[in-house]
Design goal:
Elements lengths: L4 H9 L4 E3 L11 E4 L3 E5 L17 E5 L6 E3 L4 E11 L4 E7 L1 H4 L3 E2 L6 E2 L4 E10 L5 E3 L4 E9 L33
């Protein structure tokens, strides 16, 4: 069951869903708008000719921080990792789904490739997979609305929430965008 605006506000007030910072005016009919943080990870093309998913590649990405009021330029065909300004904590019986804003999608901005699902038990800032599929550069700004999260009530609490021992939850508690840890699967 998808949570309505009323249910989202009630869940936040009861601290079942924790969003920090929380802006009540960002609650939409069935979601809540989220904002872009100022930290990004960019690919280090000069140091790597290939991404080997079996190998830990510490220098694959470079961290960049943008000052407030300054644009981050996302070029056509470019892919970078960003982060939500908001941190999110979900209980064991609510899942989330992050999606882009349609107004930004109409400009060619995609905010996730595959990581749109937020498991019950998640805690931390969400990493955004930012892609520009337009033929022109797109400017992004710290604290701009970047997407929205909807919430689904599970039929029962999950047995093993995200972050449980042995589950392989690589990103629990992250505060900034975190590069892929897929190599740990091998």
């Amino acid at each position: 069951m998808l949570l309505s605006d009323k249910s989202i506000k009630e869940a936040v007030k009861a601290c079942r869903i924790v969003i920090r910072p929380y802006f009540e005016d960002c609650v939409q009919p069935s979601s809540i708008d989220i904002h872009l943080d100022n930290k990004f990870l960019l690919f280090n093309r000069a140091k790597h000719g290939v991404i080997d998913v079996k190998q830990k590649q510490d220098e694959l990405m470079t961290a960049v921080e943008v000052k407030e009021g300054e644009p981050f330029m996302l070029h056509p065909g470019e892919f970078v990792l960003g982060s939500t300004l908001e941190s999110l904590k979900l209980p064991n019986d609510i899942a989330g789904r992050i999606e882009g804003k349609s107004s930004l999608g109409r400009l060619g901005l995609l905010i996730h490739s595959t990581a749109g699902y937020v498991d019950p038990g998640w805690e931390g800032n969400l990493t955004l997979e930012l892609s520009n599929v337009s033929p022109l550069p797109i400017t992004l700004y710290y604290k701009m609305k970047i997407g929205q999260i909807s919430f689904t009530q599970m039929t029962t609490p999950v047995d093993r929430p995200y972050g449980s021992k042995g589950l392989g939850s690589h990103y629990q508690g992250q505060k900034v965008p975190v590069a892929s840890r897929f190599h740990e699967e091998f």
